[in-house]
Backbone:
């Protein structure tokens, strides 16, 4: 466990109560408010009586405390090592310039400890300062619901401009890319962030009622799975972030349905093929044809 239960919701809640009590006496309503804000509904049944009846001997009956200084929650050694490890991930700089640099500890793990074998090599350049700046502009606009003026480069190298109301960002682990989902007069769908060349908050007039909503293109594929070499567990893990259903047919036979967006279809084809003869696609026929086309290409290239 990286973050100890001693630093969980209950301890942080009591610390918040004591922090306020070092400033002024607390009444019952203030204590209840702090508990509801920081813990869970049923926490009132345990925390408040333990404090008010002085079972924990932290808070006096009049709402004061004998603690002179506000409590702090210092990080443990393993927490520092974990934070230092994730600060080495270049994607964290998309969200903050703060670096968890603890010179007295070693990182819990490094990038060299992982071998990624099923990820495309042309992922987004997270080290690029301009990419980071655009990412933060987009993230801020999503939080504010503010429209953006975006200049992007098409697959043919043409520059196009559009006004978009950003909705959310999505990260593809397989592609190692971020996508922006948004709605606009000329656009309804997704934009790869790597294709965005300029991005600014749009301050002009913008009629939101004219905006096209995001269009989703849900699809599904159903296949039979033979559970050998732990195949069922690997499939469920491999497609963990997709909506899916699995039904047992026989002792080692399962019927699995995966639901996905049209933009993810090529990735789904590749992932299913990676399981070889343990998976047989049943429907739709259009997906069966995609599998056949992929296999023919692999044969032609001698794969």
Residues:
């Amino acid at each position: 466990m990286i973050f100890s239960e001693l630093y969980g919701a209950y301890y942080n809640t009591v610390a918040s109560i004591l922090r306020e009590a070092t400033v002024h006496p607390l009444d019952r309503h203030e204590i209840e408010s702090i508990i509801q804000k920081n813990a869970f509904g049923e926490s009132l049944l345990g925390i408040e009586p333990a404090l008010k009846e002085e079972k924990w001997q932290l808070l006096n009956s009049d709402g004061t405390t004998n603690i002179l200084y506000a409590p702090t929650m210092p990080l443990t050694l393993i927490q520092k090592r974990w934070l230092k490890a994730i600060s080495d991930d270049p994607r964290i700089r998309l969200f903050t310039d703060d670096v968890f640099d603890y010179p007295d500890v070693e990182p819990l793990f490094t990038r060299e400890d992982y071998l990624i074998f099923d990820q495309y090599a042309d992922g987004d350049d997270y080290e690029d300062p301009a990419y980071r700046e655009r990412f933060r502009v987009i993230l801020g606009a999503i939080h504010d619901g503010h429209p953006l003026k975006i200049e992007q480069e098409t697959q043919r190298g043409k520059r196009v401009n559009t006004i978009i109301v950003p909705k959310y960002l999505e990260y593809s682990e397989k592609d190692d890319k971020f996508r922006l989902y948004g709605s606009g007069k000329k656009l309804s769908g997704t934009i790869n962030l790597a294709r965005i060349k300029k991005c600014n908050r749009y301050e002009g007039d913008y009629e939101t009622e004219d905006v096209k909503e995001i269009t989703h293109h849900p699809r599904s594929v159903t296949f039979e799975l033979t559970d050998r070499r732990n195949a069922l567990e690997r499939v469920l893990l491999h497609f963990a972030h997709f909506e899916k259903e699995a039904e047992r047919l026989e002792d080692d036979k399962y019927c699995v349905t995966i639901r996905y967006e049209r933009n993810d279809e090529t990735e789904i084809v590749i992932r299913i093929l990676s399981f070889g003869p343990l998976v047989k696609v049943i429907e739709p026929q259009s997906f069966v044809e995609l599998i056949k086309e992929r296999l023919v290409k692999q044969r032609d290239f001698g794969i």
